[in-house]
Write a structure and sequence with these properties.
- By secondary structure, the protein is an alpha+beta fold.
- 59% of the residues lie in helices and 16% in strands.
- The protein is built from ten helices and twelve strands.
- The strands form three sheets. The protein has a five-stranded antiparallel β-sheet. Strands 7-9-10-12-11 form a five-stranded mixed β-sheet. The chain has a two-stranded antiparallel ribbon with strand order 6-8.
- The protein is rod-shaped and about 225 Å long.
- The C terminus is likely disordered.
- Bound molecules: adenosine-5'-diphosphate (ADP).
- The site of adenosine-5'-diphosphate (ADP) has 20 residues, from helix 8 and helix 9.
Length: 501
């Protein structure tokens, strides 16, 4: 509003100054013409008086100038410069300037002075000098100044009224918009909308502002949702982390407990093995005595004892033989777990298979078994472990044969860092549900129909696991069996590799 008022006032002042100046200049021109015409008339009217040397008539003519209140003085001079007639405005103490030969109108000493030669019949008969004060010009300037001032006041008042009306038209929507902005920034509530008060550019501005608010509102909502989801995920992760930590703690505790119980288990295992070893070793002596004395009894009493008594003695012999076998197997089993003081030796598995075949020569001959063995590696270990391993597997293949004469294949290969050896037979086979059970000590599938202690496969498993390998069976009932075991490839002795190469 101040800007509008200042602009209007400036424009008006400039216009006023322009008008006054223009009038000042124009009026000067007009005054020159007017005085020139007036001096002509007066000069013409005084020619007769000059010719007849009648100053009274000239004075009368000059006196007619009193109707022009701004004529200060007027004089008629004779050609010699002597004053002929004079008029002076009442109350004015003016002196006529000296006459000049040339006609002239000039502004001089704050007045307009006219010098006009008086000509009669082509001859100069005198000079008219007329002095006109500039009061009229000042009056006009004052009048115009007052008019401009009045117009100025009136126009400023009108501008003030008009702009205060226009101001409310323009400012109200802007104030409304500013209010909404302030409310939004204070409350962060983006659902607030500005009211559209007009259909003009300000209305468009309000619409654009509202659109911007609605898109901010959508973005704000999405942001809040994303924030909530992130907080939820964070709290879930924290919970999971806490529960993981709790689980880890209990796992660590369980581990510690397990380690303790493992240690005590290992200790009691060692004790048990030592006991089994000592017991099976020490029991052999009294057993041998029972066998020897029962045989002596049969010899001494031959022909004396009846049939039933000799059957009893025979049962004693069978029982002690079976017990001897059991003790021998138990001893072998306990020995595998025992610690060895000597360092491991290269063991040629081909020699081991030979040894096992020799030990089983009777059974092989009786059954007509055919054994095919691939070339096996030399490994680092103890021969006393590997002979029972192969002997048990080959012996079982013969013992649990089918109607066919046994055919045994020993093959070898490499699988991911392990040597794999397979002893395959064409025997009676094993139903899948027993595949893991048969490796448990004393677990037998065939009762006493086929003799055995049930320790053979337990010995095999113990040997293989002691060297870091694994043993399992692949078989179907009536389809033969594949006993497969692995040993770490690192066990292959260097010299054996060289030989192979
Ligand atoms: P056992 O002294 O009875 O032979 P093992 O531990 O050697 O004891 O074998 C456990 C059981 O596994 C045997 O009683 C037998 O039933 C079964 N078995 C082992 N080897 C074979 C095989 N090659 N074919 C079929 N059954 C077998």
């Amino acid at each position: 509003m101040l800007t509008v008022m200042a602009t209007a006032a400036g424009a008006m002042i400039l216009a006023g100054i322009g008008i006054i100046f223009a009038d000042f200049v124009l009026f000067q021109g007009y005054l020159r013409n007017d005085l020139s015409a007036l001096s002509h008339i007066i000069a013409d009217n005084t020619t007769g008086a000059l010719s007849f040397d009648d100053p009274t008539s000239a004075n009368e003519t000059l006196a007619s100038l009193q109707v022009r209140v701004h004529v200060v003085t007027a004089c008629v001079y004779q050609p010699d410069g002597a004053l002929f007639a004079k008029y002076t405005r009442t109350g004015a103490a003016a002196i006529c300037p000296a006459p000049r030969s040339a006609e002239d109108i000039r502004f001089e000493d704050g007045a307009l002075t006219v010098f006009r030669p008086i000509i009669h019949l082509g001859e100069r008969v005198g000079t008219l000098v007329l002095v006109y004060d500039l009061g009229e010009i000042y009056e006009r300037v004052q009048l115009y100044g007052a008019t401009v001032a009045a117009v100025f006041v009136f126009a400023i008042l009108a501008a003030f009224l008009l702009s205060s009306r226009l101001r409310s038209l323009i400012a109200t929507p802007i104030v409304e918009l500013a209010g909404v902005t302030a409310r939004v920034s204070a409350s962060r509530d983006y659902s607030v909308r500005a009211q559209r008060l007009s259909g003009d550019e300000l209305g468009l501005l309000v619409d654009a502002f509202n659109e911007m608010l609605s898109s901010i509102q959508t973005r704000d909502r999405e942001l809040r949702q994303a924030l909530l989801a992130r907080e939820q995920a964070l709290s879930d992760a924290r919970k999971a982390h806490d529960s993981l930590e709790a689980t880890l703690e209990s796992v660590a505790q369980l581990n510690a407990e397990l380690r303790t119980s493992n240690e005590s288990l290992a200790r009691s295992n060692e004790d048990l093995e030592r006991f089994a070893f000592i017991a099976s070793h020490d029991l052999q002596e009294p057993l041998r005595m029972i066998t020897v004395y029962s045989q002596l009894l049969v010899l001494r009493c031959s022909g004396v004892i009846d049939k039933q008594t000799s059957m009893f003695v025979e049962n004693i012999e069978n029982g002690t033989r079976r017990m001897r076998e059991l003790l021998a197997d138990l001893l072998a089993f306990a020995e595998i777990g025992a610690r060895f003081d000597q360092p491991a030796q290269p063991v040629d598995l081909n020699r081991v298979v030979e040894q096992a075949r020799e030990n089983l020569s009777v059974a092989i001959a009786e059954s007509g078994a055919a054994i095919e063995a691939a070339r096996l590696p030399v490994i680092l270990g103890f021969e006393s472990h590997f002979v029972p391993l192969f002997q048990n597997l080959i012996g079982n293949a013969i013992k649990y044969r089918s109607d066919q004469p046994p055919r045994i294949d020993i093959a070898t290969g490499h699988v991911e860092g392990y040597i794999q050896i397979c002893v395959a037979d064409n025997g009676m086979g094993i139903a899948p549900e027993y595949h893991s059970k048969i490796f448990v000590a004393f677990k037998r599938l065939h009762g006493q129909k086929i003799p055995g202690t049930g320790i053979g496969l337990a010995i095999c498993q113990r040997v293989v696991e002691r060297y870091g390998g694994r043993i399992w069976v692949e078989s179907e009932l009536g389809q033969g069996s594949n006993f497969i075991f692995t040993l770490p490839a690192g066990l292959i002795a260097a010299q054996a590799s060289k030989k192979d190469n």
